[in-house]
Amino acid sequence: MSDDETVLVLTTYDPNSDSLNKIAWPESGPVDCRDWDANPKHGRGMPRGVGTYTLLDGIPGALGSLRWVVVRVKRDEIDDVKNRGHNHGFDTGVVVYSGLWKGAFTMLSAAYPEVFKANAVVDTPGSWGVAIVGDRGSAAAPQCYGSAVAGNAGTALVGDRGVALVGDHGRALAGERGWAYACDHGVAVALSEGRAEAGAGGWATVGGMGRATVGVGGTAKGSTCCRVVAGDRGTAEAEAYSHVVVGIRGRARVGKEGLIQVGWLDRDCRRRTVAGRPGLNGILADTWYEARDGYLVPVETHPRVAPCQQR
To answer: Which structural domain, as residue segments, surrounds residue 295?
Structure first.
């Protein structure tokens, strides 16, 4: 079966819940999808990575936890499905990649350089627009429900309820109720009720009632009524009525009526968590805290210490 007879199809599933398309995706090898029906909620996939990302399984959701799957499918087995937008269905195929979005993007951009053009600006008007570029490019789908994808050091911009994805050192920007995801050392920004996720060393910012998540050494920031999470050695802050979580040797700050959780290591190097609320046990609002000896202490009280040296 030659490459001219097949096409790579991108799809996703959430390993932490039942897949909407009811398919048991293998790590690699053949997959049979013939038990799915014509309902638009089943069997979604995007040939060459071009399609409506907002219709993929697990979106809306935590983009960083999704499993991204690339399937090699015979061209004559790919069908349009009613009300499926830009996405398609197929009966059988061979899984050639399963993992993080970055790996899937790398495979697709190498296979279809004409789609993932470098140093290009794409502006797709209208709802459900799709804009895709390669490394260092800029992709914009400014209308509602748009999808923008850019490679390393790229920029992806979408409007309300859209999905923006970029590789390492990239910038992902989404409107209200949108999803912005950047890989390591990237920047992800979403407005009110949106989700922003960035990898290690990244920066994630959300508006009111949103969720921001970053990896190790990252910075996460939220407005009011947010959930903000940063990994080990990270920094996380949010305004009133928010929940702020940070890992080992991290620093956290929250406004009034909020909650902070900070990780720490005991003398046996076991991971622990300490939580606090402004107004209880001397915890102050809008003040930076870190964990030491199982207690929250203002960061100016003690310098940071190496892991397992905390007593």
So the answer is: 216-311
Q: How far is CA 160 from CA 21, 40, 163, 191, in A?
A: 26, 22, 9, 8
- Asked if residue 124 belongs to a domain, the reply is yes
Query: Is 294 a domain residue?
Result: yes
Q: Compute and round to an integer the Cα radius of gyration of the chain.
A: 21
pLDDT digits (tens, 9 = 90+) for 271-306: 999 999 999 999 999 999 999 989 999 997 544 444
CA-nearest of 165, 1, 149 to 72 is 1
DSSP 8-state symbol, 154: -
Domain count, the chain: 3
Q: How far is CA 262 from CA 24, 253, 278, in A?
A: 37, 10, 14
Taking CA atoms, 219 is separated from 54, 82, 197, 212, in Å, by 26, 42, 10, 9
Other CB atoms within 10 A of residue 113 CB = 11
**In 3-state terms, what secondary structure has residue 248?**
strand
**How does DSSP classify residue 311?**
-
Q: Give 168-182 pLDDT, tens digit per residue.
A: 999 999 998 899 999
Note the pLDDT of residue 119: 41
